[in-house]
Amino acid sequence: MSSISVQAEPILSVRDLKKHFGGKKTWSGAVSKTIRAVDGVTFTIYEGETFGLVGESGCGKTTLGRCIARALDPTGGEVVYAPKEGGAVDLASLKPRDLRPYRQDVQMIFQDPISSLNPRMTLLDIIGEPMVVNGLARGEEVKHRVGDLLERVGLRAEYMVRYPHAFSGGQRQRIGIARALALNPRVIVCDEPVSALDVSVQAQILNLLQDLQAEKNLTYLFIAHDLGVVEYLCDRVAVMYVGQVVELAETSDLFARPLHPYTEALMSAVPPANPRAARAPRLLEGDLANAANLPPGCHFHPRCGYCVERCRTEEPELREYSPGRFVRCHRAGELKLDGVAELAEADL
Ligand SMILES: Nc1ncnc2c1ncn2[C@@H]1O[C@H](COP(=O)(O)OP(=O)(O)OP(=O)(O)O)[C@@H](O)[C@H]1O
């Protein structure tokens, strides 16, 4: 795990970010339902840290990551970025032309490298084109830089004349990483970068990401549903449930003692450290709430084993439970919830 220095400065402050889909008139005059994919997310990411984002499929992680990288236009809220030269800019509200100088600072790596790599382009074009378009290099210099980048991510420079289909899944992810690095970014949104890979290859890619972070002082927003990967890699973690953050904490605190019943439920699906341990997995029951038709009160209440009357009617706020620890639950602190570390100890 990388550790951020105490003096680390905020590099991205996400404030009340929203991305709603739908809500538009259809051809028949009816209005389509509004899907609240991201619905008021607030957190700060510090320079050099790995900030994890977890939650079930469909809870809005990808949409949030894409809004932060401005691959999608947010519906509302702010993404305040601190450029190297000082000051602060709200990436969420900049017009495309004004966004251009900052776009290269925030890059993305995707889950499925093959669908994000143009099959008709050589690696030289895939990795070199952004350099040329952004005026970072031209001519022979592009080849040199692409060769260096390929070698840095563990591939051979001469592969630059080949096409993506000639490579394995792990190698393609290395190509995706080289492309993201081509513009010397400061922040990389890593959207499930290892979930499509074999376990042995996953470790190699995670090690590469860690080495690159140390070398280039990169900041990662790391989106994942595999809690084991998140525990290993992230400094802090935000847990999302239907478009909202329900808990945010330092990784070790979150895993040792979750404060939100949803976090506990996610963790109960993690295999115990001791495989012989007799532990009944308390799997998450019921389906993720519908982002187009949210339940009243706490959005998690229909699936929550700790639900009381207030949870059915009153929507909880995200509040700071202790310094740096945020939770959106009426009963936070009152409940004694199981974390992974505690379970592992109890199992021995
Ligand atoms: N372009 C779109 N139009 C309409 N709805 C969308 C669009 N993109 C995402 N959604 C909806 O927004 C919600 C959040 O989706 P998103 O892909 O961000 O979740 P996720 O947590 O990243 O899921 P996964 O892990 O499966 O990628 C879902 O209900 C999804 O159906």
TrEMBL record:
Keyword Transport: yes
Primary localization class, coarse: membrane
Highest rank taxon of the organism: Bacteria
Topology versus the membrane: Peripheral membrane protein
Cellular component, GO annotation: plasma membrane
Domain ABC transporter per the UniProt entry, residue ranges: 12-267
GO biological process assignments: peptide transport; transmembrane transport
Keywords: ATP-binding, Nucleotide-binding, Transport
Pfam families referenced in this protein's UniProt entry, alphabetically: ABC_tran, oligo_HPY
InterPro entries, A to Z: AAA+_ATPase, ABC_transp_ATP-bind, ABC_transporter-like_ATP-bd, ABC_transporter-like_CS, Oligopep_ABC_C, P-loop_NTPase
Gene Ontology MF: a single term: ATP hydrolysis activity
SUPFAM superfamilies, sorted: P-loop containing nucleoside triphosphate hydrolases
NCBIfam families hit by this protein: oligo_HPY
Protein name: Peptide ABC transporter ATP-binding protein
